[in-house]
Automatic annotation (TrEMBL):
<comment type="pathway">
    <text>Cofactor biosynthesis; riboflavin biosynthesis; riboflavin from 2-hydroxy-3-oxobutyl phosphate and 5-amino-6-(D-ribitylamino)uracil: step 2/2.</text>
</comment>
<feature type="repeat" description="Lumazine-binding">
    <location>
        <begin position="97"/>
        <end position="193"/>
    </location>
</feature>
<keyword id="KW-0808">Transferase</keyword>
<dbReference type="GO" id="GO:0009231">
    <property type="term" value="P:riboflavin biosynthetic process"/>
</dbReference>
<dbReference type="InterPro" id="IPR026017">
    <property type="entry name" value="Lumazine-bd_dom"/>
</dbReference>
<dbReference type="InterPro" id="IPR001783">
    <property type="entry name" value="Lumazine-bd"/>
</dbReference>
<keyword id="KW-0686">Riboflavin biosynthesis</keyword>
<feature type="domain" description="Lumazine-binding">
    <location>
        <begin position="1"/>
        <end position="96"/>
    </location>
</feature>
<comment type="function">
    <text>Catalyzes the dismutation of two molecules of 6,7-dimethyl-8-ribityllumazine, resulting in the formation of riboflavin and 5-amino-6-(D-ribitylamino)uracil.</text>
</comment>
<dbReference type="GO" id="GO:0004746">
    <property type="term" value="F:riboflavin synthase activity"/>
</dbReference>
<protein>
    <recommendedName>
        <fullName>Riboflavin synthase</fullName>
        <ecNumber>2.5.1.9</ecNumber>
    </recommendedName>
</protein>
<dbReference type="InterPro" id="IPR023366">
    <property type="entry name" value="ATP_synth_asu-like_sf"/>
</dbReference>
<feature type="repeat" description="Lumazine-binding">
    <location>
        <begin position="1"/>
        <end position="96"/>
    </location>
</feature>
<dbReference type="InterPro" id="IPR017938">
    <property type="entry name" value="Riboflavin_synthase-like_b-brl"/>
</dbReference>
<keyword id="KW-0677">Repeat</keyword>
<dbReference type="Pfam" id="PF00677">
    <property type="entry name" value="Lum_binding"/>
</dbReference>
<feature type="domain" description="Lumazine-binding">
    <location>
        <begin position="97"/>
        <end position="193"/>
    </location>
</feature>
Length: 215
């Protein structure tokens, strides 16, 4: 589990590409301060497992499903990536519940500076629409953000100066991909409502309960 508060920006040092998978070596420092083999680190919002590390870099594997469903398939040597360690039980919870499981990949369609805010427009897959709402939460490349505006095809976020400096979002260009993870609570609510609607009507009636001595 993650919070969407990015701890540092890492650099892709090596990409070992296979047909539908990758092995990435990432230069970092802060996220390696207390790292262990098997730890989870979110890389651009994708939860990945540390398979080896030194004091200056770590290695992760990207499996076929992750390769197909996230923007990591387009990563290159030298690319900058958002990094966050899994949330500690005794840490502050500054963002929102982020699982590190990407729901879809969007595309930056516009950028506009307004005073100290940077507005970024991002197109998103239509199937994510039920989980996106104005003033709702969303994780973009692992960054916890509040949706400034949402339409049927695009969402807009407003980046404060700190987020512009401490994450890769402001540095991305129009046309660049963005990993999108919708609010986990919204997904659970939608799932529960659908299951309730699909559940057949109960055969238990007051008459049946009285007949068998339960009422």
């Amino acid at each position: 589990m993650f919070t969407g508060i990015i701890e540092e920006i890492g650099t892709i040092e090596e990409v070992l590409a296979r047909t539908q998978s990758l092995q990435l070596t990432i230069a970092a420092s802060k996220v390696l301060e207390d790292v262990h083999l098997g730890d989870s680190i979110a890389v651009n919002g994708v939860c990945l497992t540390v398979t080896s590390f030194t004091a200056e870099r770590f290695t992760v594997d990207v499996m076929p499903e992750t390769f197909q469903d996230t923007s990591l398939s387009k990563i290159n040597r030298g690319s900058k990536v958002n990094l966050e360690r899994a949330m500690a039980a005794n840490g502050r919870f500054g963002g929102h519940f982020v699982s590190g499981h990407v729901d879809g990949v969007g595309t930056i369609t516009g950028k506009k500076q307004v005073e100290n805010a940077l507005y970024v427009d991002i197109s998103y897959p239509s199937e994510l629409a039920p989980y996106l709402m104005t003033k709702g939460s969303v994780a973009l490349d692992g960054t916890s953000l509040t949706i400034f505006y949402v339409s049927e095809k695009e969402l807009t976020i407003s980046l404060i100066p700190h987020t512009q400096e401490e994450t890769i979002l402001a540095k991305k260009a129009i046309g660049d991909p963005v990993n999108i993870e919708c609010d986990m609570l919204a997904k659970y609510v939608e799932r529960m409502l659908n299951r309730k609607a699909e559940k057949p009507a109960s055969n238990v009636t007051m008459e049946l309960l009285e007949k068998h001595g339960f009422a």
